Amino acid sequence: MGAIQAPSLSLAALSPLLFVFGAAAIGVLVEAFAPRHVRHPVQVALALAGMVGGFAATLLIAGTETVTAGGALAIDGAGLFLQATITGLGALSILLFAERGLDPARSSFVAAAAVPAGSPRDRELLTSERVQTEVYPLASFAVGGMMLFATANDLLVMFIALEVLSLPLYLMSGLARRRRLLSQEAAVKYFLLGAFASAFFLYGLALVYGATGTIRLSEIRAAVTEDGTGTLLVLGLGLLVVGLMFKASVAPFHTWTPDVYQGAPTPVTAFMASCTKVAAFGAILRLLYVAFGTADWTWRPLVYGIAIVSMVVGAVLGLTQTDVKRMLAYSSIAHAGFLLTGVIGLGGGTGSGLAATLFYLLAYGLTTLGAFAVVTLVRDGDGEATHLSQWAGLARRSPLTAAIMAFLLLALAGIPLTSGFTGKFAVFRAAIEVGAWPLAVVALVTSAIAAFFYLRLLVLMYFSEPAVDGPTVGVPGLPTTVVLAVTVAATLVLGVVPGSVLDLAESAATLVG
Fold first, then answer.
1. Is residue 138 part of a domain?
2. What is the number of structural domains in the chain?
3. Which has the closest alpha carbon to 460: 387, 369, 411, 394?
4. Beta strand pairing status for 66-68 and 378-380?
5. Which of 36, 53, 265, 412 has the lowest tally of Cβ within 10 angstroms?
């Protein structure tokens, strides 16, 4: 019998993952053994340390291109850029989780998740200073899964990463302190639809393995190059794309998005809208570019059609929304379509589409995180005031809050001198370079339509009379202040002087297998 060879393992290349998963594992031990009164500060510090450590580790190994863990993980420019983006956005999300302001009971998270919603004990805990601190190790596990998802060089590892990032999100979606039934409904809906998406991915994996005899992305590429593509392989690719598009909230696989965005605690919604989209598109880029880059005719028509559907659905249905969080959910769906125009740019064999998509993911993640941070500040007796009518006259109640929200909405609309304009220009140009100018035209038209619902909220804030019994605008604590300062500054800088970050994305636009 031959000796079993240990797989090659680079601890330096794995260091970002080790920091985040290590913090998550220690957080579980803290939850099990630490006294209740010390858990919250310890868990916040631990989760932040894991995120910052993971971010710093990606910077220290920048420029590394290697395949490690027995070929299961590919550490390259794009993977490290995405890991740095995920950990940076994850750290800002943890700050939103930690926000309790001057009133400890203002936390977005339930004090005890096991208490039945609507029971006397549940109503009593609404004003409790306790908070469910399990959210911090759960968030750390989710971030670790996202980082693994974006660097997986193996379909089975990609599936495992998909589950590692998804399961904590299902739980966190049901932990809202107020409107708990809506939150729990969102969690169940997300779990059930997520299970279907995982099944699609797993079936696709099985079909691709049956067609090529391998699940390694680089080996799939070699098999496609040598033997061409058969029906089994194309069907497998289609099922894999369905599973990934669900996680990226791309229409027509978006049905969970509005309900979950509305029902989940707003910090969790911000976390999903920013970090999860980055991870999902990282996996989409790696699958299509590394495994099927030599046979882009198999996926370009599919992605082309899905991009148009997502842009149209997000822009048109966003016009009908009366809830701020649901409106931002349809905005997310439209932006997923815009991102797919950059993915189409990969078909030209150049790095412009990849670099443009990386920049857009960073810019969109920061902007949408800031927008949801503002939503946490506008409150009424039932918690956050998310109905559009409640935002009427907000500029008179809090001019600074309204100005920040207006600026972030203009960035989401793609107005010049914001990061949104730079990102859209980059992905649209990448699509035009490979001849997909009709897609760019559709993107421009739907972008103009989507601008209407952003401007509608802006008009409500500045040109409508505030209701007498309207909501209050809370004074943000230090965590939310930091999040708003970073996201607004980044949105402005990436719009006015984006050159250095665009150059960084261009230099990082490499994928190895």
1. yes
2. 1
3. 394
4. unpaired
5. 36
User: Residue with structure tokens 């976390």?
Assistant: 271
Burial of 433 (0-12, 13-18, 19+ CB in 10 A): middle
pLDDT exceeds cutoff 70 at 1: no
Dump pLDDT digits (tens) for 99-144: 864 455 567 777 777 777 777 776 777 777 777 888 999 999 999 9
* The pTM of the whole model exceeds 0.90: yes
Could you tell me if 328 and 368 are in contact, meaning their C-beta atoms sit under 8 angstroms apart? yes
Whether the bond between 258 and the residue before it is cis, its omega within 30 degrees of 0, is no
Domain-located, residue 92: yes
- For the range 221-224, what are the long-range contacts, defined as Cβ-Cβ under 8 Å and sequence gap of 24 or more? 221/290, 221/291, 221/292, 221/293, 221/294, 221/513, 224/291, 224/292, 224/294, 224/295
Tokens 């926000």 -> residue: 99
Across the range 55-84, mean pLDDT stands at 88
Structure tokens at 377: 């500040």
- Residue 420 belongs to some domain of the structure: yes
In a domain, 2, yes or no: no
Which residues form the domain of 276? 12-507
Closest among 467, 425, 465 to 443, alpha carbons compared: 425
Q: Where are the beta strands (DSSP E) in 69-183?
A: 73-75
